[in-house]
Design a protein that fits this description.
With about 375 residues, the protein is α/β, with parallel strands linked by helices. The chain is built from 14 helices and 12 strands. Bound molecules: pyridoxal-5'-phosphate (PLP).
């Protein structure tokens, strides 16, 4: 059967594939050291689960309004105002099935065939595929190691053409863990605004920042920037709610309305009773988040120290998210082969850098137990020593 040309060219998510392979090996009784997971290893906090269970018991089991339960949209708008200094009306918030779905809605709403979207590289691997599915064209701008894997305003300026519609920013970043400073973000955003681009700001890792670094919402930097910014966030990472599938975006009314229409004919609103859990997440105590972030920080410090002590490995110290992105170029093996060999020889699962746009790197998630990290580093040392 002849498939749709846009869908035919799409690569399935390699992070999910590696994770599935490692989980399969573990299920077969092998002692796999997994670093692939893009999700917190903690359970969803109890008060959030209880709120969803209560909603379920109370019969909140019918279709929710397409754009999300109004109480949740109000809670999101309040959170964005208080924590991020972004003043959106609840009507400007569209709740979807995860931030991934929010991003998909945005690119579908925004792109015409051939429209260009600038993606700083290394990037989260779903961005280019989503842009392509929407008929757009991803344009990559490389963040060099010498600049902490960040892109510079001149590079952005040089990549803009009459077809450019948007710039994606993801700070803190998956896969690099880099975090733009306020001044760096402002300089990039000013270029985007001057050239009439939308800024799609994926802030899903905003809570995971370390060493006193702050995660800044780009839309809060000036009224002009705010007007052109679409802020994306979700519940998966901060509240360990990956399986709940809840995310949202807030932005200019035209993009919210278009995304809403699209959602109304595709998925409709996300799960109704899950949304009551999300309200509890935003309105309830936040010490659960702080505890998770403290644990991630300890692991980050340890993992980075061990990695850079391995001869031949270099690694920018991440200031956010829960990933490290070491450079393995000195071993002369491309990232996919490196990851395959590591899984084969040492039963250690990492994600190759290639689908993130960086074939000289591998990604390790430290959303896993400290004992896993200790054992993994011993395996990696042994593996590269034998290369
Ligand atoms: C950068 C980034 N954005 C968005 C998402 C999507 O998260 P979710 O759809 O679970 O809300 C992820 C998940 O891995 C991510 O890493």
């Amino acid at each position: 059967m002849e498939l749709n040309v846009r869908v035919k060219g799409i690569a399935p998510s390699l992070t999910l594939a590696i994770d599935a392979k490692a989980k399969g090996m573990a299920a077969a009784g092998e002692k796999v050291c997994g670093f692939g997971a893009g999700e917190p290893d903690f359970d969803t906090p109890e008060h959030i689960k209880e709120a969803a269970a209560k909603a379920l018991k109370e019969g909140k089991t019918k279709y929710a309004p397409n754009d999300g339960v109004m109480e949740l949209r109000i809670a999101v708008a309040e959170k964005l105002a208080q924590e991020n200094k972004l003043s959106y009306k609840p009507e400007q918030v569209l709740v979807s099935n995860g931030a991934k779905h929010s991003l998909y809605n945005i690119f579908m709403a925004m792109c015409n065939d051939g429209d260009e979207v600038i993606i700083p590289s290394p990037y989260w691997l779903s961005y280019p595929e989503m842009v392509r599915m929407a008929g757009g064209k991803p344009v990559f701008v490389r963040g060099h190691e010498a600049n902490g894997l960040k892109i510079l305003p001149d590079q952005l300026e040089a990549a803009i053409t009459p077809r450019t519609r948007a710039l994606i920013l993801n700070s803190p970043s998956n896969p690099t863990g880099m975090v733009y400073t306020r001044a760096e973000l402002k300089a990039l955003a000013e270029v985007a605004v001057r050239r009439g681009l939308y800024i799609v700001s994926d802030e899903i890792y905003e809570r995971m920042v370390y060493d006193g670094v702050e995660a800044v919402s780009v839309g809060a930097l000036s009224p002009e920037i705010f007007k052109q910014t679409i802020t994306v966030n979700g519940f998966s990472k901060p509240y360990a709610m990956t399986g709940w599938r809840l995310g949202y975006y807030a932005g200019p009314m035209e993009i919210v309305k278009a995304g809403s229409a699209l959602q109304s004919h595709s998925t409709s609103a996300p799960n109704t009773f899950a949304q009551y859990g999300a309200i509890a997440a935003l309105r309830g105590p936040q010490d659960c988040v702080r505890r998770m972030v403290e644990a991630f920080d300890q692991r980050r410090q340890y993992l980075h120290k061990r990695l850079v002590s391995i001869p031949g490995v270099t690694c920018v110290k991440p200031a956010g998210a829960f990933y490290v992105f070491p450079n393995i170029a000195s071993f002369g093996v491309a990232s996919i082969r490196f990851a395959e060999l590591l899984l084969e020889k040492e039963k250690m699962a990492v994600v190759p850098g290639l689908p993130f746009g960086a074939d000289e790197n591998i990604r390790l998630s430290y959303a896993c137990a400290m004992s896993n990290i200790e054992e993994g580093m011993t395996r990696l040392e042994r593996f590269v020593a034998a290369m």
